[in-house]
Design brief:
mainly beta; eight-stranded antiparallel sheet; six-stranded antiparallel sheet; 1 helix; globular
């Protein structure tokens, strides 16, 4: 629902709430730049504070702008940051960076992850980044690299074209599972800035 995404005090806030709507037990929101703005290559920095808890799944990600023509995964997907919330296995302190592409009609993916030495990503703001050019995509958190993929092979040509942003906080799903009694609501993802740097 649009009600759960607001800009206030210079922050984009996407809030997941435990409330009934449309036959579901939770509400949240997502915001995207599809049809408005897309980018090919550059450095992308997103400063954000993340939600936490079992079943909470925030993501800062991108899809190929040709998704309407070729569908997913042929459009390609670049996940700048995903967090699969929960206290088990330090999930609230771990983020993932992943790409998805088409492999003979099925989803191929390659991802990496990194964890904070202490605390969780809900404690304070962090900067989630990719550096993307014609040869590779590099993932960083707070300017420290933790993952890279070589995108020069022909089968990875999905990553040689423009992408748009999607920011969202999902509740539930196959990867995080459902919320439980330990999950506190509401949960917020607060985005301080998005900066895209490109060569002229």
């Amino acid at each position: 629902t649009n009600q759960n995404a607001v800009v206030s005090d210079g922050l984009l806030q996407i809030t997941a709430k435990q409330e009934a709507m449309g036959g579901q037990n939770y509400t949240s929101s997502r915001i995207k730049t599809q049809g408005i703005q897309s980018w090919k290559y550059g450095r992308i920095d997103i400063r954000a504070a993340l939600p936490k808890g079992q079943g909470i799944w925030p993501a800062l990600w991108m899809l190929g702008e040709n998704i309407s023509e070729v569908s997913w995964p042929k459009c390609g997907e670049i996940d700048i940051m995903e967090l699969v919330g929960g206290s088990a296995e330090n999930r609230d302190g771990t983020i993932h960076g992943t790409v998805h592409w088409d492999n003979a009609g099925s989803n191929a993916n390659y991802g990496g992850k990194t964890s904070l030495p202490f605390g969780v990503f809900n404690d304070e703001y962090h900067v989630f980044s990719i550096i993307w050019d014609a040869e590779k995509i590099v993932w960083l958190v707070d300017n420290v690299q933790y993952h890279v993929i070589d995108i020069r092979p022909a089968e990875l040509n999905e990553f040689q074209k423009p992408y748009f942003f999607i920011f969202n906080v999902a509740v539930g799903g196959i990867w995080p599972g459902i919320p439980d009694g330990s999950t506190a609501f509401p949960q917020e993802m607060k985005v301080d800035y998005i900066r895209v740097f490109q060569k002229k």
